[in-house]
Amino acid sequence: MLGVLARVDRALxxxxxxxxxxxxxxxxxxxxxxxxxxGFAASDGGEPVQLSRSVMVFTSEGCSPCESLVADxxxxxxxxxxxxRVLVWDAKDQSPIPPLPGWVVVGATxxxxxxxxxxxxxxxxxxxxxxxxxxAAVGIPNKAVDIRRLVEAAERHIILSRPARVDHGAGxxxxxxxx
Length: 179
Description:
By secondary structure, the protein is α/β, with parallel strands linked by helices. It contains 4 helices and 7 strands, in the order H-E-H-E-E-H-E-E-H-E-E. Helix content is about 30%, strand content about 20%.
């Protein structure tokens, strides 16, 4: 009996010593990395336009957290201010999702290519792209509030990565961003 209890105790120690699954490294693009150029044609017919100041949320049909997230976005819409909103909906049968006011919905025909370019390893997955076309935040949003938190994290990252101006009386000097 004591041997069984010792094995159970070791197994519990092993389980509780691991980080929770939503804390492990997400993989994919890293914060600060340039986001891929997307295939949106420029209005002047030039190079593809890079998405900037946008929240991209990758979802899949058959993924219950994704379907709950989409339902939550319909029930609890949020305004991310100046941030654009793109929902990538990967549906095998190309089933549509209900309209999401304020969101650009990218369907299954482009979803696989976008997931590959953004190195998305699972859904739901969120990427926030700053005004310079760089990744400002990544995460796993399970509810609309989680997307809001991603935007807030991106805004903090943007503020902390800007060079600061320091006035020493004789003029200003650039200070390196704090990392």
